Structures are given as structure tokens and as C-alpha cells.
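Why does residue order matter? Because the sequence determines the fold. Keep that principle in mind as you read this record.
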Amino acid sequence: MHSNQIDFYKIFFTKAEEIYLLSKKISDYLSADLSGLKSNGLESPNIYFSGDIVQQSSNLSKEIIKLQQTTILEKKYAHALTLRWLTYRLLQNCKRLEKCDSNGKDFMPVLKKELKKFKKLYSNWILTL
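Structure:
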């Protein structure tokens, strides 16, 4: 692996970790608002989306590690596709959470901005495979 690839890998991995930490903090904030029952006795379905963003963002860095560790090109591309899918799902869940009844929804544009940066890094990084 070339020095430039290693540096770019570190930047890409670091961004994934930042997204995970941000997702975790947002989810914790949202959970406090969304965990209570509604007036009709039902829970908010948005509570599940807040957990999804944590799980999906956690998987970003795991997929990056798997991608870097494999030497088989087909497997590299499979992990790269998983990264793209996870990013898409994260953005979809952000859109859902922007509509929830919580002050935490105000943090969703911040997460979306970081995901867009991640997508741009992904686009550049995929060219190095």
C-alpha cells in the first residue's frame, strides 16, 4: 500500500469514526425525547430510527477495515458497495428523524453535512482501489 493510500485511508476512517460519535450523541439526545409514550399510549416509531443511525454509522468503520484487510478485488468492491448502501440508509434515516417531535432533530443537518463529506471522500477513495 502506498503512502498516499494509507493517508487517505486514515482520513476516510477518521471521518467514519466522527460520524459514529456524532450519531451516538444525537441518538442519546433523541432517545430522551422519543422514549416516552405518546398520548395514544404508543411509542414513537422514530425511536427505532435513532438506534438505526448508531448501528449503521458503527458499521461504516467496520466495513472500511474489512475492505482494507482483504486482498481479493471482488471482496473489496463488495465492501465498498456496503459502505455506499450504509451511507444511503443513514441519509434516509436522517430525513426521517428531521420530521420527529424532538429538539434533537435540529442536529440532523449537522449529521447530514458530515455524511455528504463522507460520500465525497468515498468517491475519491474508491478510485484508489
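The chain has a mean pLDDT of 87.
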